[in-house]
Amino acid sequence: MTLPTENATFWRGVVDGLPFVLVSAPFGVLFGVLATEGGLNLLEILSFSLVVVAGAAQFTALQLMLDNAPTIVVLASALAVNLRLVMYSAGLAPHLGGAPLKARLAAAYMLVDPVYALTAARYDAQPSMPMPLKVAYFFGTAAPVMIGWFASTLIGAALGTQIPEAYALDFALPIAFIAMAGPMMRTAAHMAAAFVAVVLALSLTWLPYGTGLLVAGLGGMLTGARVELMQRERITP
């Protein structure tokens, strides 16, 4: 059986990654609009996306910045939201750990949810895929996702300057979070984590600078992990 070339594998990744642009683009546009509404200029908005490269963390950081939270709180909150990327990295390490350093550094920067989902599934389905093809597929999936995110952010920023101040879009931010989190509620552990996080977040609104959200997030993660362990114990004889 003849193996596909690196070029063909790259374009296979591009094709697989294109549908995710349709999913992420609306959030990129929304972020650009809200950031403009919050007073950020075009360069600041683009820099925001280039540096953070994660929708949920960007929305979190933006909200805290608009609330005049201390820088340390903004950074800690964005980091907490992005901790899942550490697990993604660990999951791909057996496949890409032997890639050249430059490739691994670039992959670390581009490792976002859709890219992980696609590459992990592909690597599991084809465990004997040679390293060059694994690298080519990774960057193929990442290309449309990253370009789509940056482009949609710029489009949102441009649209935001055209929206009159009378039509404030503050309500859109919590709706965006609900839209992102809703489809992820697939298991009992997810539901338990979400329930505890919501209860804690509402109960700790008195804490300054939104730090109650950090506590709520930690409580939700611990609850979800505990429920998942309990489920595994029931399955294991």
TrEMBL record:
GO terms for biological process: L-valine transmembrane transport. Pfam families: AzlC. InterPro entries: Brnchd-chn_aa_trnsp_permease. The chain crosses the membrane at residues 17-35, 42-66, 72-93, 135-159, 166-185, 191-224. It is a multi-pass membrane protein. It is found in: Cell membrane. It comes from the Bacteria. The keyword Transport applies. One of its GO terms (cellular component) is plasma membrane. Keywords: Cell membrane, Membrane, Transmembrane, Transmembrane helix, Transport. PANTHER family: INNER MEMBRANE PROTEIN YGAZ. Belongs to the AzlC family. This is Predicted branched-chain amino acid permease (Azaleucine resistance).
